[in-house]
Design brief:
494 residues, mainly beta, TIM Barrel, Immunoglobulin-like, 2 domains, 38% strand, globular
């Protein structure tokens, strides 16, 4: 764990290079504001698409998207290389290969020499692609013959990890808090990660958005955390290959999990007595952590009760209001007698998984270029929002701050030239404050909640644990707001 850090990415997002919305340059720009690495995925192939001849409109937009990508692929690779340099973000090019029989996979490449290669058979595809490519299954929970994973054809060498969380929902285990609601169907027991592990396969797990409107890293739709020494492209790729990865639902929960000083994704030799160490850190209050052994709860642990005075995290969120109207935000958050130590943006795109989703997406390119500038004790934000289109679509934007403060600290909040003075003590003692920008049903700005730092950290150590050959251990961190982190396992070698 020593000298390792967490780097954040999205290895599955789409824009208008195939079917989808949002310009390529906009997508990379948005990714650079809150990620260390990303891919922009093009829809490329579906060998058994003839089996959906009864769904003519779906078949047509896929085929049209494939042709569009193929025609411009070489230029896309050139553009991605330029955008990587311009926005100082690591980009791994990728394309999507669909299949009813084998499940959907993304071919992800280390460099910008990725060739569009297809096959009727997943095994042949894996043999034909470059040695510097991964073939990553996603939305695996739909199950066999339903565009979910088919474990009979799983190959650990080409698929060191699988995508278990995205806009589609969670495919970790059959009973979970994130339902799969897409018209493709719901979770199948034989499509879960726990089912694959039970069959003896060794793979890591990640989250990525599968966002279809040019917003990699769209908050709340899944991210991958990579454990690595630095964020050089080659270092990140090595960590991906070694399964040193984990998934989060939205909040960037830093998670370090080791057994005998070996990090998640490792296979380790059994010792007579073994040591487990877990450390988690967030900008939100953590409820508890769970250590699993062979997918059964082994231990539960909670944050330390010892309060850290004058240090904690504060959330700011804005949006709501009219569902069809774009609202411009000019926000200034200035702290008096308090200092900003750390911040995280929670910017997101309008939810979209297919061309049939969200007709209001025509405003996407103008509506969501969120921008934040941090000064010493001040944050300035320019943002555009629209109201929530349904009770399940959250189009709000947010930022989370860790601050050091005093008893009489306060905030000078400016929203579109209107000023508000808010004492931090009032937020701590009374809870969040909401501000309407105009009359009732106008757009809202929310200050809070606040959580003390001791509630945002988890430490767990357990020594002298007896382990058996083929045991596997993994960790889940649960926040009070229901956002989670799921580690890749550590396996005990046979």
């Amino acid at each position: 764990m020593k000298n390792n850090k967490v780097f954040w990415g999205d290895l599955h997002s789409h824009c208008n290079i195939s079917y989808g919305d949002g310009k390529l340059a906009h997508a990379v720009c948005r990714a650079s504001k809150q990620l260390d690495f990303c891919t922009i995925t093009g829809h490329a192939f579906w060998p058994d698409i003839s089996k959906i001849n009864h769904l003519k409109s779906i078949k047509n937009y896929h085929l049209k998207g494939f042709q569009k990508l193929k025609k411009k692929w070489n230029k896309i690779l050139i553009d991605l290389k330029k955008l990587e340099k311009k926005y100082i973000i690591n980009i791994f090019p990728s394309y999507e290969w669909h299949s009813l029989k084998y499940g959907d996979h993304n071919v992800i490449n280390k460099n910008f020499n990725l060739k569009l290669i297809s096959s009727d058979n997943i095994d042949t595809l894996k043999k034909c692609i470059s040695k510097d490519s991964f073939v990553i299954p996603h939305h695996i929970g739909y199950g066999k013959n339903k565009r979910g994973i088919n474990w009979e054809y799983f190959n650990e060498s080409k698929s060191p990890f699988v995508e278990i969380f995205s806009m589609h929902g969670l495919s970790l285990e059959e009973v979970n808090s994130f339902k799969m609601l897409h018209d493709m169907g719901t979770l199948s027991g034989d499509g879960t990660a726990t089912y694959g592990w039970s069959k003896g396969y060794k793979f890591g797990i990640i989250g990525s958005t599968d966002h279809h409107a040019g917003y990699p890293g769209s908050y709340g739709s899944g991210l991958i955390g990579v454990i690595a020494k630095n964020k050089k492209k080659s270092t990140l790729w090595s960590s991906l290959k070694n399964k040193n990865v984990y998934a989060v639902s939205g909040d960037k929960i830093e998670l370090f999990f080791t057994i005998n000083n070996k990090i998640m994704g490792s296979e380790i030799k059994k010792r007579k007595l073994n040591n487990i160490s877990i450390y988690a850190k967030s900008l939100n209050e953590i409820s508890h952590g769970i250590l699993f052994k062979n997918d059964r709860k082994f231990d539960l642990f909670t944050p330390d009760n010892k309060k850290i005075k004058n240090s904690g995290s504060l959330n700011f969120e804005w949006g709501w209001g009219d569902k069809k109207k774009v609202f411009d935000w000019n926000i200034e958050i200035k702290f008096i007698k308090a200092a900003i130590q750390e911040y995280q943006t929670c910017f997101k795109g309008i939810p979209k998984l297919s061309p049939n989703d969200s007709k209001i997406l025509k405003i996407n390119n103008i509506a969501l270029p969120n921008n934040l500038i941090k000064y010493r004790n001040k944050i300035v934000i320019k943002s555009k929002t629209i109201g929530n289109s349904t009770l399940k679509d959250d189009n709000t934007q947010a930022v989370k701050l860790r601050i050091k403060f005093q008893k009489n600290s306060y905030i000078i909040l400016k929203i579109n030239k209107k000023s508000y003075k808010i004492f931090l003590e009032d937020i701590i003692n009374e809870g969040s404050k909401t501000i309407f920008t105009d009359k009732w049903l106008s757009q809202l700005f929310k200050v809070g909640p606040f959580s003390y730092d001791h509630l945002n950290f988890l430490k767990y150590k357990k020594d002298k644990i007896k382990m058996k050959n083929n045991d596997r251990y993994r960790v889940e961190i649960i926040q009070k707001n229901n956002h989670r982190a799921w580690s890749s396992p550590i396996w005990i070698k046979n």
